[in-house]
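Hi there,

I know you've been waiting on this one. I reran it after we fixed the sequence typo, so this is the corrected version. Both the input and the resulting structure follow.
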Amino acid sequence: MILVTNDDGYTESAKLLMEIAKEIDKKVVGIFPERQSSAVSKSMTFHKPARVNRIRKNVYTINGTPADCVYFAIGRYKLDLVISGVNLGDNTSLHSIFSSGTVGGAIEGALFGIPAIAFSRAKLGHWKEADWKWGDKEKMGHWIRKIIGGYKDKLKKGQALNVNLPEKLTKKTKIVFAKPQQHRLTPKIVKRIDPDGTPYYWLTGDYAKPEKGSDVYYISKGDITLTFFEPRRIISTCEIRRS
């Protein structure tokens, strides 16, 4: 069985992923956060009960995070693959990878030994109307099918693949394996004053200069970037030195 989730809810791109998943496996379930859950990483909800709402057959929302959705699915189904996305905005750089709710869902699956793929797509400029469609469903579907078909069987237990699609996709778009840049944004704090005279702040940022050879560099060039990661290696490769 394949689980489809993301951090943005039951969006048009989530529906596309479910369509593609059904071409691979007849058993597909979609479980999504009931509210927009960007930048929640792999946070989980243990302080309140889970409320699950059935949208349609095999499609549900939950009052929690993407990791909650995956955790809930693992407790109910035998999963063979987790597909998360398609996130509005790329998740390039370590800063974004560790912050992303979409990637967090994939990490949750990988931690339980389930191969997982997270999809994100660059969206430049101001997101005035986040309709999640991009206007080229067929092109995006082509590349998603190609990547899932080419790499799902290469993922071992505990591994995940982070995929970033550029905003413009063509038949000549290249797929590149890339090392994550450290940061995508340079921190920028915007201070404003509310009607009562009390200051408040927006945590935002300016795009950092792409480092040659990094995922940020290649996505800026219009390439599709792939990054394999294995969460358990964070522990297994640590060295403890006695002083």
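Quick highlight: The first strand starts at residue 2 and ends at 5.

Best,
R. S.
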